[in-house]
Amino acid sequence: MPSTTNDPTQTTPAPAGTPAESPRAPAPAAGPPEPREAHEEPESASSDVASLRHEAASRRRALRAAEAERDALRQRVDAHERQDVERVAARSLVDPSDLLSATNLDDLRGDDGAVDWTLVDQAIHDLLQRKPHYARPAPPIPPTADLHAGPRQTVPRPPSLGEAMKRQIGRRR
Asked: How does pLDDT run across 36-47, given as a tens digit for each residue?
């Protein structure tokens, strides 16, 4: 068993898993690291933090403004698309708003986000299958023109009350 002494020249084997120190390696400096301009660092750091916070706040405001503009434009596009869908639905339905009451506008959009008119036609067809009373009635057949040409016979008029009284008075005399 090796003896343990406090002799600095004597080396002891390093435990497993730790790097062995070389006796010739210079010892690291024991003093604290030298501060770099200690009086300016807190001010510049606080001003950097303040400028970063200001920049982040302005970017958040710009993001919120862009999101609000995007939402307003989306509402305008939705309103135009809703009008177009109702215009197409008016051909088949008495009340075209019934289609959008039964389905969502997003369900009528294709993969690209635009209104898919085949989906609109299918939704109208499905709605009329479920609720046939929503269908627009067939237009009435317009009266055909009278094809009887030539002179007409006049229809005899029935006698009026005045004429009947004149005949009665004329018989008494």
From this structure: 554 455 677 788
In SS3 terms, 144-170 reads as CCCCCCCCCCCCCCCCCHHHHHHHHHH
Q: Whole domain around residue 121: which residue ranges?
A: 43-134
**Structural domain total, the chain:** 1
**Does 20 reside within a domain?**
no
- Say if CB 114 and CB 80 are below 8 A apart: no
Q: Chain centroid to CA 158: how far?
A: 72
In a domain, 116, yes or no: yes
More confident residue, 133 or 19: 133
Please give the average per-residue pLDDT across 7-35, as a whole number: 52
71 within 8 A of 48, measured Cβ to Cβ: no
Mean pLDDT, rounded, of the chain: 80
